[in-house]
Each structure stands twice: as structure tokens, then as C-alpha cells.
Write a structure and sequence with these properties.
Length: about 110
């Protein structure tokens, strides 16, 4: 009887939230790819002006993280987590990585 009660469409929210949680690691990984693309653009621009070891290292740093997130995205695309717990653990690490990359990009652009 509880499942038959439809209060403002709330019975459809739970499956939608579960789907969103399962895809959240993939979404966060794609957001990280976008941030890394911006960082790579800025670092390549600076490398062409300065051409130092430090700017070379920054470009390599961005490329390595970009490759890692592309591999994560491909993995999550083909292997979606079955349970919410399996989706939350990668999301924690990817969310922390997103925060760190966003801060780094913000400082880099100044």
C-alpha cells in the first residue's frame, strides 16, 4: 500500500537518484577531464613563452592526470557500479581530485 501512494511523484525520485549516483563517478571523471584540458591549455601557453623545466613538468603533470581520468571514464562507462556503495567510494576520491584540480586551475589562471 505504501508503494501505491504517489505524493507529488516521490516514488519516481528514488530510482532516479540511484541512477544518478551510479553515473556520478563517470560525470565527475568527465568534469576532471574538462578541468585538466583547461590546465593543459594554460600550461602549454606558458611553455611556449618560457620553455623551462618547470613548465615542461607542469605539461607532463597535466597529461598524466588527463590520461588517468580518460582511463577512469572508459572504465566507468563499461563497468557501472552495481550498488550505491560501490559508486560512492570512487566518487569520494574523484570529488577530492576535482576540488584540488579546480583550486589549482584557479591559482594557475591568476
Amino acid at each position: 500500500m505504501l508503494m501505491e501512494i504517489n505524493l507529488f511523484g516521490l516514488q519516481n525520485i528514488v530510482p532516479t537518484l540511484l541512477i544518478l549516483v551510479k553515473y556520478s563517478a563517470l560525470i565527475t571523471s568527465i568534469a576532471n577531464i574538462c578541468l585538466l584540458g583547461g590546465m593543459l591549455y594554460v600550461y602549454l601557453e606558458r611553455y611556449l613563452k618560457v620553455k623551462s623545466k618547470f613548465t615542461t613538468t607542469l605539461v607532463l603533470f597535466s597529461l598524466i592526470f588527463l590520461a588517468q581520468n580518460i582511463l577512469f571514464s572508459v572504465y566507468f562507462f563499461f563497468n557501472l557500479p552495481e550498488t550505491v556503495i560501490n559508486a560512492v567510494f570512487p566518487l569520494i576520491f574523484l570529488g577530492l581530485e576535482f576540488t584540488a584540480l579546480a583550486l589549482l586551475l584557479m591559482i594557475t589562471r591568476e
